[in-house]
Amino acid sequence: MGWDGLYASAFEGVRNSIGGVGKVLLAYNTNIDAIRYLKGEDLEERIEAAGRDKVLPYSEELPKRIESVPQLLGSILWSVRRGKAAELFVESCSVRFYMRRWGWDELRMGGQVGIMANLLGGVYGVPVIAHVPQLSRLQAGLFKDGPIYVPKAGNEGIKLVHPKEFEAGEENCIHYIYEFPRGFSVLDFEAPRENRFIGAADDYNPNLVIRPEFEENFGEIAQKAELAIISGLQSLTEENYREPFETIKAHLDLLEERGIPAHLEFAFTPDETVRKEILGILGKFWSVGLNEVELASIMEVMGEKAIAEKLLAHDPVDPIAVTEAMLKLAEKTGVRRIHFHTYGYYLTLTDYRGEFVRDALLFAALAAAAKAKLGDVRNIDDVVKAMDVPINEKARGVEGALTKEYSMKDGIAEVNSYQLSFIPTKIVAKPKSTVGIGDTISSSAFVGEFALR
Ligand SMILES: Nc1ncnc2c1ncn2[C@@H]1O[C@H](COP(=O)(O)OP(=O)(O)O)[C@@H](O)[C@H]1O
Ligand SMILES: [Mg+2]
After folding, report:
1. Separation of 317 CA from ligand 1 center, angstroms?
2. Which SUPFAM superfamilies match (predicted)?
3. What is the value of pTM for the model shown?
4. I need a labelling partner for 112 at 20 to 30 A (CA). Which of 34, 53, 96, 177 fits?
């Protein structure tokens, strides 16, 4: 069967079985993304009002965090001048107030938990229990309808309610996203490409604050779950990781004890100490999902510099180098499943066998293409609308290399007593949206795999 046939039957398989998946526990990061599309004139007026001389130095060198309005405007200019993304923590209340009054054009669900809750619960109808660090009305309103639950502590223990019924009126965790197009001009500067600056007015996610309901009743909450997906560790730093790490380890031990497979969705983790610590607990997870930059950054802290460099040297990424890196990671940590995604193909290494591993990847690639193509995926039948998106041409060479090296057949090979599963992905040439596409891929593949079992 060709890839199109495999795609079609994988979709049918997952659509027919996904209703049987039990509750998925999602922790820990959820926030509000407030997007402002910058206007040159407005920004210029603000810079003049704050004092151009005070603002400009920060466009040369970013501050460590934002404590004043000139720092905020200067940091935005820093991004514009270079066409580069940057994200800084906004500590000062008066700057937070300034950003709030400046306003937004669009509010979006932010944080991996929030994004995956809306996809799994709101689109696929798979019940989820979400950790939401702060549940404000604004935050609650961003959850889709469907079987999405947050635990509420009451007299008779934990009750699961939809976030809109939680009614706690907690704080807003807002990530203000200032977007600009290529060629955007302000003062004498012009943006070489489109990008964004993010000011995080959020005291909870960067410190990975875990809610008391989760601290105190994790056993009871976990009892209700069949699978777990963990994310949000990337924002931790050497200064603040210790306390949350103790809780996370306890949570993982409990999940393992109950036989609940947990997936870690990796994201780029700038702090090297935290990256090493994550490596240290990876064996407690069933599964991990990552891209080429993230895999290379892990190889670096494992002392595998040569492989790390190889992973970033070619386009498309050299699949033999990826396989070697995944083998090293699996052998070092004991993690049972590694799902690698890059532009054009996915590879998964598992210590178990079956076509369902590959088929779950196909379902995930279709979901990713649907999201890129449509912007918003409303229900599982929207996913199949991506069937006509062509398979990435460059993936043929990748498939050829894997066939030659590992005698791969229909995307499946045996490598060092592991199963290697490969799929070429469908790539949307002009995507409507790429926000949260990695989270879409990983959660669809992980949950899809358990649906197909
Ligand atoms: N236009 C597109 N069509 C289909 N898939 C895409 C497209 N652009 C990116 N992707 C997929 O999305 C993935 C992005 O995931 P990742 O790098 O983890 O970023 P993030 O987690 O920020 O979404 C890529 O590896 C690629 O597989
Ligand atoms: Mg990602």
Report:
1. 14
2. Ribokinase-like (SSF53613)
3. 0.96
4. 96
Quote the pLDDT of residue 154. 85
Domain with CATH 3.40.1190.20 in the chain: 3-21+226-452
Nearest CA to ligand 1 atom 14: 438
C-alpha dihedral, 246 to 299 to 29 to 89, nearest 10°? 100
Cβ distance 443 to 229 under 8 Å?
yes
Question: Looking at residues 429-446, what average pLDDT do you find?
Answer: 93
ipTM for the predicted complex comes to 0.99
Beta bridge partners of 88: 199
228 Cβ contact partners less than 8 Å away, ≥ 6 residues apart: 24, 25, 26, 27, 222, 255, 260, 261, 262, 263
Q: Which CATH architecture has domain 3-21+226-452?
A: 3-Layer(aba) Sandwich (3.40)
Asked if residue 382 lies in contact with residue 374, where contact means CB atoms within 8 angstroms, the answer is yes
Q: Please give all residues whose beta carbon lies within 6 A of any atom in ligand 1, as ranges.
A: 291, 341-343, 368-369, 372, 425, 427-428, 431, 434, 436-439, 441
Pair 248, 233: CB distance under 8 Å: yes
- Supply angle C-alpha 441, 325, 1, rounded to 5: 50
Tokens standing for 144?
């889709």
Query: In CATH, which of 1.10.1610.10, 3.30.1110.20, 3.40.30.10, 3.30.1490.20 is domain 33-109+172-201?
Result: 3.30.1110.20
| 217 assigned binding-site residue | no
State the Rg of the chain over Cα. Answer: 22
Q: How far is CA 352 from CA 22, 284, 358, 399, in A?
A: 22, 17, 12, 21
Q: How far apart are CA 316 and CA 314, in angstroms?
A: 6
Q: 28 preceded by cis ω (within 30°)? A: yes
Q: Is residue 53 flagged as an active site residue?
A: no
Do the Cβ atoms of 304 and 325 come closer than 8 Å? Answer: yes
Could you report the per-residue pLDDT of 166-221, keeping only the tens digit for each?
988 999 999 999 999 999 999 999 999 999 999 999 999 999 999 999 999 999 99
Q: Is the pLDDT of residue 1 over 80?
A: no
What pLDDT was estimated at residue 234? 95
User: For residue 297, how far is its CA from the centre of ligand 1 (angstroms)?
Assistant: 18
Which residue intervals of the chain bear CATH 3.30.1110.20?
A: 33-109+172-201
